[in-house]
Write a structure and sequence with these properties.
2 copies of one chain form a homodimer. Chain A is an alpha+beta fold. Chain A contains 11 helices and 15 strands.
Amino acid sequence: MIYIDGGVCAPKGFLASGISCGIRKSNKKDLALIVSQKKAAAAGVYTKNLVKGAPIIVTQKNIADGYARAIIVNSGNANTCNANGIEIAEGMCRLVESFTDVNSSDVIVASTGVIGQKLSLEPIERGMPSLVEGLGDNSIDAATAIMTTDTAIKEVALEFCLGGKQVRIGAIAKGSGMIHPDMATMLVFVTTDAAISPEMLQKALTDTIQDTFNMISIDRDTSTNDTMVVLANGMAENACIVSEGEDFEVFKAALTEISLKLSRLVAKDGEGATKLLECTVSGAKSKEDAKKIAKSVICSTLLKCAMFGSDANWGRVLCAIGYSGAQVDVNKVAVSFKSEAGEVSVCSNGGGIDFSEEKAKEVLSCGEIIIDVSLGDGEACATAFGCDLTYDYVKINGDYRS
Amino acid sequence: MIYIDGGVCAPKGFLASGISCGIRKSNKKDLALIVSQKKAAAAGVYTKNLVKGAPIIVTQKNIADGYARAIIVNSGNANTCNANGIEIAEGMCRLVESFTDVNSSDVIVASTGVIGQKLSLEPIERGMPSLVEGLGDNSIDAATAIMTTDTAIKEVALEFCLGGKQVRIGAIAKGSGMIHPDMATMLVFVTTDAAISPEMLQKALTDTIQDTFNMISIDRDTSTNDTMVVLANGMAENACIVSEGEDFEVFKAALTEISLKLSRLVAKDGEGATKLLECTVSGAKSKEDAKKIAKSVICSTLLKCAMFGSDANWGRVLCAIGYSGAQVDVNKVAVSFKSEAGEVSVCSNGGGIDFSEEKAKEVLSCGEIIIDVSLGDGEACATAFGCDLTYDYVKINGDYRS
């Protein structure tokens, strides 16, 4: 399995485009299109928030038959809590049909941005000719067009071998704020030229997100628009995966690999973040307990602030373990902080141990920090992804709409 | 029921004191003592965090018989996750016995501050003579000595009539950070001269906290040391409350009133906070749903930032309602923001309505803001208390230990 360039355009038969059509006041790109030359098996996972973006309703309807060919996405407006939201989302699909050979019922639609502000089709319609004209090896343009407060493009692609054929999988994502996925993260679009049935594609996706995107939290706010979809157009010509077995595992491993990579990119680029935090929990009684603890630690506002300040305030880790809801013998807990600058153990058997504050400061001053929790109470483990809480998070979200 | 001065010393027979004994590096007061002249019925509620401060273990043991006479509290060190924590907490009780006529098994002990740092009895022992000498009408000194990052003293007292007798109830509290009580808030000490049995006192306390302290959240971090205790010494000479009935309801109403008052004070003085946020939810299918929604809204990091920036970003309210876990028909939801500057409706039937941004800014620029959520789906209601998320929260917690 090797990383390659090209993002969603790396697999055979996928084209992408991204433009500025004027939904945003600035001239930042705000409209993206991804098209597969062949009809592709499609699978999606969506937010569990009861308040759901209208595009999710339309996407669920359009991929109910297990297939799709195109993805249209705008940023700058979430098309959520709008009276005519469904109409607008369906209108976006019809615009794709009008300007390409894709049937509107084969279009996946997504939106991200402010909630509850009317979205007009006008700028999108005006932008369609140049959006379609731009279709090509332009994954970066599409990745740019779906960004909101993201500061970095999130794009990844892998090449691997499946049943003797060379297969590729690529993805773009947006994250930043309102990120505490309870199904998938804000927006993730994956393309692959693997041949796989819609049922097995959905299974691979559902399995994969549990340990990847669903283990991220930027701010514990589960968005209304979380959507992750995968399109598999079969152009790699591997023997189509229609059941579990070796090929399915290979495909799922590739999907998991790019999902983990994107999860870390999303966490590291959390709104205002200066550091990626990973909490690795081992020795738990059950996988569920390990996950609860890892997420509880990564979500602690107090710990996030301490990490911003490079302060080895491990009591906050213990505190978050204690209220996680997991069954744990606190007298067996050990905690250490790790980074490229080294490792410092701060807690053993639930109590403090002497450590060098100087060394701890050095370890915690790096850009990627692992908070390692060992429970000594079983075999299960889990990892959660988050970021520090900074002045800039407050600044960005104190006046997001203007 | 009228508010009076005097805090925990307002009821008959209670004396208090607060000094600086040197646990903290600064000369801020850090040791408090409250003593009842008569043995008092005692009730307590404590954190549900599995990581519990050692003082909680000792307090639970000492009031197991339903009675106590004194409360000793230090700030600057939480005496939690310390190998000899129990020994130190018991040592604090013994010091009270050595310097007063109170038996050590009648002492309630509490600590607040950094977790996992050794606490020495030495400064406490050195401070005991002046602490005991200071006992008097000094509720403010005690309230000051239990503060950590609190910026305001939290003290309150009420006078009311019970079975023909004038009865008083007083309390002090500390809040600020690591505040998401799951039993009681960080530290609340209540005194009353009412005569009430330990069983009925515990029942009144357990009932009261559900709608008061347990509805506060500053940062979703449930502390390891949350403790609320009530001492009732009976010196008002009312007929002792030994069962439910009119007198019990009157007493509980008084306890609820001061708990609500303190809850608002604790929320308003959350770490770094500039504004008190109250989320009032009505029209819910069940009380439990109403509480879930109110707490979810008040806990949303994104909404807290928007309130700091006086930004009427109501989509974040809808988002938090949607992921609250409560059953709700989002198409019936209405939201308005209220303050002393007026009221502005921003959402009706789950969708946006036109409103004056200027007026909204004015409403949200006040120090106390009500986020009013109407569900139109039932009769149940609830209120939660929180505060905005500011640069100062990040600053305070980025380097708390130094």
